[in-house]
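User: Round two. Same drill as before: sequence, then structure, for each protein.

Assistant: Same drill it is. First protein:
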Amino acid sequence: VVQRFQELFAQTKYKEAAELAAESPQGILRTPDTVAKFQSVPVQAGQTPPLLQYFGTLLTRGKLNAFESLELSRLVVNQNKKNLLENWLAEDKLECSEELGDLVKTVDNDLALKIYIKARATPKVVAAFAERKEFDKILVYSKQIGYTPDYLFLLQTILRSDPQGAINFALMMSQMEGGCPVDYNTITDLFLQRNLIREATAFLLDILKPNLPEHSFLQTKVLEINLVTFPNVADAILANGMFSHYDRPRIGQLCEKAGLYIRAL
């Protein structure tokens, strides 16, 4: 078979060579070498490139393997024929891989996400959901497939471009079964490192609603950071009487410094 293939190729009978390779026993000719061979043929103006002929022949026989799928997709992406990719994926003609997802991501994020999911390229799926601000889907998807993302890294990534999204994600984590995967104090410090005091306050006010004794440190912390930066916010928190476990002597001193003498008593 290999010899016959070489002969056909030497005679520039590319269509016949493509058919022979497509039907070779156990796919022995369906290798990167064969792809490279068709790739190396100079393309005449107005003619179908032999490589496309080869892939076209394979597609009529069934599904492409991972390497073939990647190389064909490279061709059609370069020719801006994304619709062909969509059709082949819908017909399950391409084998999905992380590399294919990376290639398609350069032209279409939605299609890339579908490929990552099919290829089970889990970190890429999680990153794609984060980019789309679909934080709830990260948690659902991870639970479905039994994957534990690096939640701290994810939160840091979201925080860089979307502080409000980071609050939402942190609050979603705080409601996860089995407890929050990242310590509340660590989350708070991530916001504070970026000087996002309002965001840190919003997060803490939400998780501290139950007013639990074990949260005395965080109650003190949210009052401290606001007494130093936004005394009116600290004043409102104290006026609401929502906390009863904070460090009273410490907060009393800071109230005095901030000019909140009534609160200092």
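Second protein:
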Amino acid sequence: MTASPTLVLASGSPRRLALLEQIGIVPDHLAPTDVDETPMDGEAPNRLAQRLAQMKAEEALERTRADKTIGPAHILAADTVVALGRRVLPKAEGIAEAEACLSALSGRGHRVFTGVCLITPKERVRLRTVETRVKFKRLSRAEIDFYLASGEWHGKAGGYAIQGLAAIFVSKLIGSYTNVVGLPLFETAALLTGDGFPVAQDRSPTAPEVPSEDAPAAQPNPA
């Protein structure tokens, strides 16, 4: 009997874990990474998202190599970037940063890029970058203050989470919704199936421990 392939998610994000669960995938291991996300001089937002996704995947690969209990695995990583033109908005860590993001996005269109990197068990690198165009309505002072008070913005690219209260700010969206949440599911599934990883099939996975976050993902059902 062929052993079930192993999937390592190079992230501690409950959002990405929940998105994978949505299409029936529960990673065997979580490997949160810590890479320098500072853009390089003149680096385009789409290139930044792709580079960071690859850096995360490569860091997770090194950790997987060192863990003799894992063996060859598919390593999946992603990074999401919100951009106004070529200006990359931060992953807001403080309320002033979040307020600046919301004020900049108010009444304007922006682009959301997610770089997705898959390193195969044979250590081949597969990359995709997905773009979604989003437009916000003009935000009132009260709406900005309400959203800031919610705390949903913390750690989010561009200072908002489209899957939460910020959904009411979006007047137009062209492209992948799940890309804006943090993992474009169509493209991610295509990367996995292209390397023989089963999607929409029963792998009888063992659920990994989910790191805590402001909005934790639903826990996987036990095998």
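The helical segments are 14-22, 45-66, 95-105, 141-150, 177-181, 185-194.

User: Perfect.
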